[in-house]
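Hi team, as promised in this morning's meeting, here are the two structures we talked about. I've kept the exact order from the run log so nobody has to guess. The first one is mostly here for context; it's the second one we should focus on when we meet again. Sequence first, then the predicted structure tokens.
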Amino acid sequence: MNQLETGETPKAAQAVSDCQDELAELLRERAAISAVLRAIASSPHDLQPIFDTILDSARRLSRADTGVFRLVEEAGFRLVARVLGPGVSEDVLPPKLVKLGSFQGDFYNRLIASKLPLHVPDVALELHHAGEARELIRRRGLRTLLFVPMLRKDELIGSFALGRLRVERFTEREIELVTDFTAQATIALEIVRRERQQGQLQTELAHANRVATMGQLSASIIHEVKQPIASTVINAQAALRFLERRPPHLEQAQRVLAELVQDGMRASDIVDGIRALSKKAPSRKERLDINAAIRGVIELTRGEAVANGVSMQMDLAQGLPLIEGDRVQFQQVILNLILNAIEAMSGADEGTRELLVSTGKAEPNGVHVGVRDSGPGLAPAALERVFDAFYTTKSSGLGMGLTICRSIIEAHGGRLWATGRTPRGAFFQFTIPARPA
């Protein structure tokens, strides 16, 4: 008796075929998850492309003609994405909000109650809502539906509604595939949600740090603003005297008026700097001249340096490449480093108090910024922990300033570090890659 007669060869062939089918399905599922992860990586701050990719992947896995992605809110199920297969008309859109109690809302009621996939093999058989069922078929052409819940810790947070334009049941394997994919997509969305929350918290902390810093500078800032205002008044009075002479001294009046304009612009720059650092605004990337950003901070901190007997100098290299980032965030970093240096030197009883802010080129293509002081310096143990959250050597410090500074620099692709100096002082430095050409 040969193998064909015993049936062993067809069984083996069937086993191979089943194995190939399972492998193909596994590859499809992995490809779907990979597509979602790519969408998250390429669009971390915009959820819409992520929603669209998740839904399209679910539709392809289940071989559905249409797909709708909804998230749960107090009023019902809110539409966040929809996708149509080839040849499906875009004339009729699903409702933006499905309220519980409507025909479609009845499906969602069942989904809420069971938290399990809901399969509707033929919409026309939903006789208890026959009129609305016929309307759904007439207007949107849907005959077979599959609702898949999106669960987070057993809480329903959303769902996919997948539809076919013909009466064709979803197979158990298709339901299993899309259910597994939904669970993985939920985890991916949860990671995105937590990262966004962490980013928002970081923004809140950075803003609070800037406000606290500006409060620390309030007395010095008032002094800095009063100087150009007083100079403006003096120059204006001088210009009037030159113009009142007979004949009027026009050349001298013109020179004094030019100085008056410069004083006004200086006062305006100081106020603009205060406003930018104090207000709460979303991060904004722009082409940035790091030297210009540093000069703006120097204007705000000069009075504080003078009040503490600190000689502040700048050594800014020319011809530096532009960097790309948020001006306010970079100025916050420089402001924190300068004020920390001034505060460190203010307690020194001996030696000169000198602060140097420098810039230069960083290899292979970027900028280097350094803030060097002649204070007491940092002990080896402090150097290891100076950037840790809540670590501080100040009696009134919160220990978040340098942590925020490092997170800002690293978010821009750079590095921030500190070293001690011999015999005294500290040197804080950071590098930032140049803006891509």
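And here is the second protein, the one for discussion:
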Amino acid sequence: MDQEVRVSPVTRETMGHAVALLERFFSEEGFATPPPLIAANLQAMVDDETCWAGLADAGGDFVGVVTVTTMLYVEWGRLGEIGDLYVLPAHRRRGVAHALSQAALAWCRARGCSAASVVITPDGEQRHNLARFYAGLGFERTGRTIMTRRI
């Protein structure tokens, strides 16, 4: 059953709540980013007009977080990307992730994005069946491979 969820932008006042949720997410999923870097990177995103972060409030408690970035491409024009999406385990399957995703997509539309993407890790897919979740929101597989190099 869905619960009433309100999504609002992360602000300086709510930054600590968002960082705590992201630290928990990274720990649960086995990402190696240290907590001080999570906090610094989120602050940089909040200060950058091409990025957005939102917090989900359900019953007065912050129960989820989402981050979004945008980039310019020749192919797409401005493209949004949902980078992080996390909901506390006790609040999953209640509409929180859907509300966070919809807020992120609305923010992307308002910034003139032609599309939005999401990267799903193999672990994320295995643990949470994320492709099915995102397909339910209208995301489609592109067949592209993402390769990354640290610089």
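Starting points for discussion:
Strands lie at 6-9, 51-58, 61-73, 77-87, 115-118.
The chain is about 40% helix and 25% strand.
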